[in-house]
Amino acid sequence: MTRQKKPWGGRFSEPTDQRVEEFTSSLHFDKRLYPYDIEGSIAHCRMLAAQGIISPSDAEKIISGLQDILKSMEDGEFSYYSDLEDIHMAIEKSLIDRIGEVGGKLHTARSRNDQISLDMRLYLRDEVKNILDLLAGLQASLVNVAKREIDTILPGYTHLQKAQPVLLAHYLLAYWEMLDRDVNRLKECRERVNVMPLGSAALAGTGFPINREYVAELLGFPEISRNSMDAVSDRDFVAEFIFDTSLLMMHMSRFCEDLVIWSGGEFGFVDISDAFTTGSSIMPQKKNPDVAELIRGKTGRVYGDLMAILTLMKGLPMTYNRDLQEDKEPLFDAIDTVTTCLAVLSDMTGNLKFNRYRMLESAAGGFSTATDVADYLVMKGIPFREAHGIVGRLVGYCIEKQKDMQSLNIEEIRLFWKGADDDIYTCMSVDSSISARNIVGGTARESVLRRIKEIEFNKPA
Ligand code: ARG
């Protein structure tokens, strides 16, 4: 392959070392920015013409050249010279090859420093939209399963010890709430991404009479950056985005962790469909929850991406430094990871089959309604601390006699509280425990149904 003369080669008398060329090139990964790079260049070019900085006929040639390049890239026919530094250089070089010297006018009043900031912002803006759509899909899956399983009871855990019965729907909607905060965080992040940096040039702005607002309008940015040095040097919007996706991954990972535990034989609460599990190469009986495990595992990758960008930024002197080229791979990796995880988890969630009987049986055991018995005593006028002690001793007795609470006779209960009569048994049932919690945020059926209504009412059309 012929080596290209560098667009910046004017002051150089020797060619770049081959290894340095490979070492400094970002083309193999920043290629993916091409549609945004071209979109940004077309807007910049229109503005240059509108301001009389280049002639309308030059602008026309440049724009149609850029459109040709876009087409050849989309058709997979574009040949990338491996010795070009990055996507900006690849496009500029190809433009000059196609339309001649006039192509060199495109870079007037612009630097790659503001150009790359623009490309990243245009790209990320689209990706945030895509992630928000996928998040809406996962949330919808959770709500659908919650509605389908509105009568399914789940033992709720703290410390992974059986604690109190809850509705499975309540559990599922807990994830809906977490994801909803992820949605809001990403929307806020998008506001900070959605700022137009072009015009900052290398670092100091440009002396050409450009019109930044016009470029912003052409590209649909509600705001332009207010400081050229800030605009070319900061990548806080990248760090913020990866932090938001880290939290989102953490939420998905915790849900997956429960699915891994619940699908195991000891729990047997859920069956993950065959389409989302894999077998073992040696043990014929196995059906493994690999998808859930991989989502859990990939969470670590995204945390790594966050550490990479934070560490990348911490020691950079103002303003642009080539280190910043290293912002792309962590960002792309976080985006690729979170989008595939969201898509696969939505589908897997919709296909989960819960073993209702097994969950109910488990929810009823382990003295899961002991708190309800204590609450019952409180209603009878006993201070809560004392009630807690009475029920604690009652549980101790049950464990010793290997009985559950419901199977004690009233005389046995009276050993611990003299005032007991038959209505004490009603508060021991799982159903009464759940339906008692009819407050905002509680697990009663009515309360959960109210929340589902609210969610569906607020859902954007
Ligand atoms: N490929 C570079 C990056 O991603 C583009 C900006 C290059 N600017 C420069 N002054 N070398 O950061």
Topology (elements, then pairings):
Elements (H helix, E strand, L loop, with lengths): L17 H7 L2 H4 L3 H17 L5 H19 L12 H13 L12 H37 L4 E6 L2 E7 H26 L1 E2 L15 H8 L3 E2 L3 H6 L2 H28 L6 E2 L18 H25 L13 H23 L2 E2 L1 H9 L5 H10 L4 H18 L8 H5 L15 H6 L9 H14 L3
Parallel strand pairs: 3-4
Antiparallel strand pairs: 1-2, 5-6
The site of arginine has 9 residues, from helix 6.
Overall 3D form: elongated
* Structural class computed from helices and strand pairing: mainly alpha
- The total strand number stands at 6
How big a fraction of the residues is strand? under 5%
Radius of gyration, rounded?
A: 31 Å
What does this molecule look like?
This protein is mainly alpha-helical and 461 residues long. Helices cover 60% and strands 5% of the residues. The protein is built from 18 helices and six strands. The strands form three sheets. A two-stranded antiparallel ribbon has the order 1-2. Strands 3-4 form a two-stranded parallel ribbon. The radius of gyration is 31 Å and the shape is elongated. The model has no long low-confidence stretch (mean pLDDT 95). Arginine (ARG) binds next to helix 6.
